[in-house]
Amino acid sequence: MPGGGISATSDVGAIEAPVTFKTYLMCAFASFGGMFFGYDSGYINGVTGSSVFIQVIEGAGKTTLSGPHNSLIVSILSAGTFFGAIAAGDVADTIGRKWTVITGCAIYIVGVILQTATNGLGLLVAGRLIAGIGVGFESAIVILYMSEICPKKVRGALVAGYQFCITLGLLLAACVAYGTGKMTTDASYRIPIGLQFIFGFILGVGLLFLPDSPRFYVKRGRIEQARKALASVRDQPQDSEYVEAELAEIIANEEYERSLIPAGGWVNGWLNCFSGSVFKSNSNLRKTILGTSLQMMQQWTGINFIFYFSTPFLQSTGAIKNTFLISLIFTLVNVCSTPISFYTVEKFGRRPLLIWGALGMLICEFLVGIIGDTVGFNRTHTDATGTTIANNIPAVNAQIAFICIYIFFFASTWGPGAWIVIGEVFPLPIRARGVALSTASNWLWNCIIAVITPYMVNPGEGNLKSNVFFIWGALCTAAFVYAYFLVPETKGLSLEQVDKMMEETTPRTSAKWRPTTTFAQDMGMKEGGKLDMNVEDVERKGSIF
Ligand code: BGC
């Protein structure tokens, strides 16, 4: 690269390209990946209930899946996603964000083909494991890719689009499961499984036409490609002042971060994610803890109790005739509430969303628990026909209303918020691995909760009934305190400014922070000057670690 031509801005990062329609489209496209995530989480409940499918797995004449088979089929996906997400970070630093997601789509499609072709347990489990690895690649790296290419003004809103697609995927899965559940041929399971192919295909092929992340190119020292990619995602000519200023800042930040982090191989690359003091809010260790625990807390809110187990839970009261309809209402509330966050996350910021969202959820959860224990879900009798039925049906309805309000709070706050924040808090040298670890934490806790919840509520085991909401309420209280003390405000800042903000503030004072210098200035470049030295350094040291 002929070092030069990159000038800093005097306006501490305020200079930013106008966001055009094309920019929106390009940045939002990858959010389609959320469809896999939601659909994959949701469709299996319908398939495992199909009588044809049960016979394929258990043999002719069988009417239920055995416990171990059911749990293996459901949880093997999370195992795949967990390992897929962890591996994806390294892959994304090596072949790029875009190609990692495309590879994830290809792996996913192979897994889907195996599952669709299945005539027994072995192929199905192998297919779900492989598809899970693909989903792990995709769920971690789409967030990374989107966070790195979106303009800072609308980054939160666009990444929230990913969460919106998750909710659409869950809704579609519920509808397909309903539509195919009563079929008496093998279409009852091959259709819901095979449909996943379309998602992998659209995302994989569509991404071929988009550029990779400019930040990936800078990390690898390929500055000209970074410039081209940045110009493309900002819909600006390559020599535009906007592109110049943003590129200068990314390069200077990379140079600065690299000066702090010891160079080294693969092992050092991983060790860097855990370096520094746990008491310093800008240490890599703290950022890794922040990302992984944020995703853990998101799962602790108990949201997947609703999406995975609401049907048997509602059935247990005998008060609700059409449990599918109520589950559909839950899913619809989830879909319709998420777009509110497109606006609020940029207007009020990430911190208020997470703090107030946790407060709203915990109030609803405790109310569901209290009503259930005093008059609602937990008080039932057996009628003349021997059916269990709730004593006080209006009280059960009130509980359902509070569950809807709880879903509203989740969908408009923690649902998108957790994904937005993990894409923003890591510095470039550890960003891919940090996002990957955080996503893996989401899947790990997703799996843990899916495995242990039945034991808490099954009549023969914990039999907690709606008292389980006291547990979710207590965990949401932890999420509320956590968000207040530990989540910084990243709204309106470039990823490089987030880095600086975390260095200069604590989470509680972060919202007031304003940039006073740019990394380009700090790295020795005077206003309007050239960044030749930095550019050459970055090109020379371009690293995958
Ligand atoms: C969570 C999923 C959950 C979904 C519900 C996502 O953000 O990570 O576990 O099923 O939201 O919309």
Characteristics:
545 residues, mainly alpha, two-stranded antiparallel ribbon, 25 helices, transmembrane, MFS_Sugar_Transporters, MFS_dom, transmembrane helix
What's a concise summary of this model?
This protein has 545 residues and is mainly α. The protein has 25 helices and two strands.
For the secondary structure, the number of strands is: 2
How would a textbook summarize the main sheet? 2 strands, antiparallel
Ligand set? beta-D-glucopyranose
CATH class: Mainly Alpha
Query: Low-confidence spans: pLDDT under 50, at least 5 residues?
Result: 1-13, 526-530
* Number of helical regions: 25
Q: End-to-end span in angstroms?
A: 21 Å
**What's the number of domains?**
1
Compute the CA-based radius of gyration.
24 Å
Mean pLDDT: 88
Secondary-structure topology with pairs:
Layout: H1 21-29, H2 34-47, H3 51-58, H4 67-95, H5 97-116, H6 121-149, H7 155-181, H8 187-194, H9 196-208, H10 214-219, H11 223-234, H12 241-260, H13 266-272, H14 284-300, H15 303-315, H16 323-337, H17 340-347, H18 350-374, E1 380-382, E2 388-390, H19 393-412, H20 414-424, H21 428-457, H22 468-486, H23 495-504, H24 519-522, H25 532-541
Antiparallel strand pairs: 1-2
This protein binds beta-D-glucopyranose.
Beta-D-glucopyranose binds next to helix 7, helix 15 and helix 21.
